[in-house]
Here is the input.
Amino acid sequence: MRTEHPTGPFPRHPEPLAARYRAAGAWEDTTIGAELRRTATRFPDRVAVVDDERRLTYAELDRAATNVARMLADDGLRAGDVVIVQSGNVVETLVGMYGLVRAGLVPVCALPQSGPRDIADLATITGARGHLVQADWPRSDLPAAAVALRADHDIRTLTVRGEVDGALCLDHPGDRSGAVLPRAGAEDVALLQLSGGTTGTPKLIPRLHCDYLCNARAWARVSEWDEHVVAMHALPVAHNAGLVLCVLPAMLAGGTVVLAPGADAATIARLVAREQVTDMVVNATVVYRLLSSPEVGRSDLASLRRMAVGPQTPEYAARLESELGVRALGVFGMGEGMIMRTPWDAPREARLHTVGTPIHPLDEVRILDEDRTDVPPGEIGELACRGPYTIPGYYAAPEHNARAFTPDGFYLTGDLARAREIGGTTYYSIEGRIKDNVNRGGEKVHADEIERLLVTHPAIAEVAVVGMPDPELGERVCAYVVPRAGAAAPTVADLAGFLLGHGLAKFKLPERVEIRAELPTTSIRKVAKNRLRADIAELLARERSTAVGT
Here is the structure.
């Protein structure tokens, strides 16, 4: 990224920490593009990536990425230029991403679902010079959005899977030579991920070649992946999880990446059987779909050994093992860095009730109280982390960085966590979000605790718990519920009986249920709880106004 950009530089790790990571071998002197070349040299004819229609060997992927990089250089894009990427789970996305980083460009990993306003904000913040879109994305007209973006920004439209007037199509770069590609450094910014924030435009997370590869190597190591792994991703592949928990670790090992076009049970079951998938990283929604689908029970899932699930629920973990024969491993992570996972051989209690342990030996974890003091063992506090693949700060956000990081560089995640000793090993469980606390008359109610129980209710497909304003107690608990297909919408009494049966305290019970067809989400597809809080506040205000008028 060009340091003269008016929005300012990105933060760097303090040199003593950086030196420690280099000396320990956590940061290696290599780049994402160089590692693809290394794997292509070792396994040229092995299948690197498969989608629903197409497959490429490592030699083909490496060659295509180089030709795309040269095409971009010939077109005038220069090392350090930022390119916003909106492309789905197709082979061309990985060709384009590898081509961008090999050309020294900096991808911003947006989602194809991101709206025009979000993309325009990202273009303004980063000074992006390029915008890569999937021309045949089925859920919205990305080419039209790209054309509209050009009206207000000096930006080059790039396309895959189709041509658009005025755009550079990367589908057929041909065998190019002549363009000299820049030599990226291991500690250069490789790409920008988006934070999971729920207010305004997400913060930009600068990930270095060395820290991203450190993350990927650690995941491959704890997962015991080699060239025989077949890792499938059904969630957006350009997300942090898609890249560092699937694509990069599998390709470092020489394995095969399978890109599912959707996260529905039928598609997943079909591709697992067709490609003999061994490993997946999914969320609880995908697990629910798999466990609820009669088709999955009739499918050949024998190859699928492990499924890392975040967030994990004990019921889902147990059912994955008993009904599908798949070892369920809890996983927790963030675009900012830190990843935890339950080991393959962890005790059942740890696999069902925790997110495991950090995946790298240099990861540092603290659990802090409101005064930034470490809590006693076993107590709940805010999770803070530091390590060789955890960022030292967001891009161009000095005021936010001052709040989000401790003076000694620990990232304050906003997650509530607890350390638990099981079998002589310290495991961590995630107990909710600090901002998700409902303060009911001075009693803190953790929304995540209630959600993890309610998601197992037979009538509930999705749920989000928020605080609703109350003149007496400050806040009361409100549950937004998406019912399962064919199920009757649960009432407050239904939820109370269910939760009391699971031992929940009475003061934590939802006192209002709002039924919805779907829950609102942020630009990176997380539940937008700020919108739910605003919604219930508006509903209550309207009801009070109506009552006063009668």
